[in-house]
# Entry
Amino acid sequence: MAVYTEVSDEELRVFVAGYGIGEVLSFKGIAEGVENSNYFLATEAGTFILTLYEKRVSEGDLPFFLGLMAHLSARGVACPLPVRDRAGRELGRLAGRPAALITFLDGLAVRRPSAGHCRAVGGVLARLHQAASDFPLTRPNALSLPGWAPLLAAAGPGADQVAPGLGERCRVELATLARDWPSDLPAGVIHADLFTDNVFFIGPALSGVIDFYFACNDFFAYDLAICLNAWCFEHDGSFNVTKGRAMIAGYEAERALAPQEIEALPILARGAALRFLLTRLVDWLNVPPGALVKPKDPLEYDRKLGFHRRVASAADYGWEPR
Amino acid sequence: MAVYTEVSDEELRVFVAGYGIGEVLSFKGIAEGVENSNYFLATEAGTFILTLYEKRVSEGDLPFFLGLMAHLSARGVACPLPVRDRAGRELGRLAGRPAALITFLDGLAVRRPSAGHCRAVGGVLARLHQAASDFPLTRPNALSLPGWAPLLAAAGPGADQVAPGLGERCRVELATLARDWPSDLPAGVIHADLFTDNVFFIGPALSGVIDFYFACNDFFAYDLAICLNAWCFEHDGSFNVTKGRAMIAGYEAERALAPQEIEALPILARGAALRFLLTRLVDWLNVPPGALVKPKDPLEYDRKLGFHRRVASAADYGWEPR
# Structure
């Protein structure tokens, strides 16, 4: 939960006057979003989210993120649409921060997704991959294989304080991934953070996807591997192959996986698990005093990694020949 | 900013189904409110605030607070209206907490109120006092004179760590107030916490009053004294008599102050300042580790108290014979 930057009513009025959206009717800080400050904004023209980008988001990346949302939205992928100001700009400045106004997306995040939710997520992920195929900007994935060793180094001996042997497990895993990581798979723009928080549903129907602030260029199947990690494990740590099957089938209904993607799925799932293990570990070890955000448990991904190590093939995730 | 209790989408659906307000369209934690967890809720029937009452609010007081809002709303004082569930109850239970659904009130809190805002606040305060005159429930003010000595005792030697001599200043002030506090002024239900956060405006027009969780029975003029403290000092600590004059005139346009209320205004203003000084001091000295809320500066009210000590009469607050 987070509002890191306070916005006065006077600053807000000046900012909103730069858009053709009428007078402000309501403005409330939202207790979600780890990286940025988010506000609910209602005006005479409708409801919006106002985001102030905090230090962890690089300002140079914002045209990529905002442009991607506009691109996807124009191609029918339901996601927030950046609103242009009177001068045609998607990116503004407010309270000393880069700021953007985006349309409000109805829907609710699910905490315990069903197989139906997983199928819908697989489908929207594939549509996102396809809709972004002609997006002109690129952004390298700073949190792919080359980024993991520095994260492990940053955790240092702290890893073993979180769980005995965790540092060594990560080092061994990293060596395996460095050896076996694929180098040539279908790639393009991926969401890279499509957790349950970031997909909204109204009743059983998927209403949209939010939070594109980790989007980047990488393997499509790696994005699917992230989603298998995020959606298809039960809260007791077990992998639910019914949900995995639904998610992969939902994906393949929109975009068929190539044979080499299917073959690579287990190693990609291991990489995805290690990626979230490591970023969570570093966050866990660096909670600032007075932090507004409770860090997420890195060991959840240590346990998922244990599952992936025992996987023989994509069939163990529910993949089936079509 | 605060969401102390998390609500899952499943719990929410069950709860909302108990009201005749259609399906949930959106649900977001709001980063405001120190005492309770507040959520923005949109359904097919409209927009609402869902409040979960946390430990600092006594469950036995909730019928008073919710009943008061319904009473005031019915008499034209713009404030949130508790929504009754299908069984006619204003108070429900969600995620292990007492919970209420109230209508969403448009408007924006002002950070730097103008004299016009102060006049409007004076007016709504008087209308609130009058509209509540036939409200059948009562709630003693736990934070009036008899409650202040225990607060000072709770702060203990910590007071002098916040500012040298603060403990002694409070003791002397408390003795003066115990001697001079009025015992017989017009009284009834007061808001008791009508700070700038709790009054909304759309453009220059007051759109409503929120947060009745300190409302209680006490002197009407004490409520006005709280507002003079909260609204009529500049950020540099100086009292703005133009704003005071506007607020008192706004109040008296709706309800004339009796001579003994006018005479008591300076001592009531001192009491109000000490009350917020002491509760802020105790909060300041007891910030729990990992607190989500930044405590408010008690010394702001130490400085205001210094002003009130030099006041000769209500005229110094801007009161004028009518």
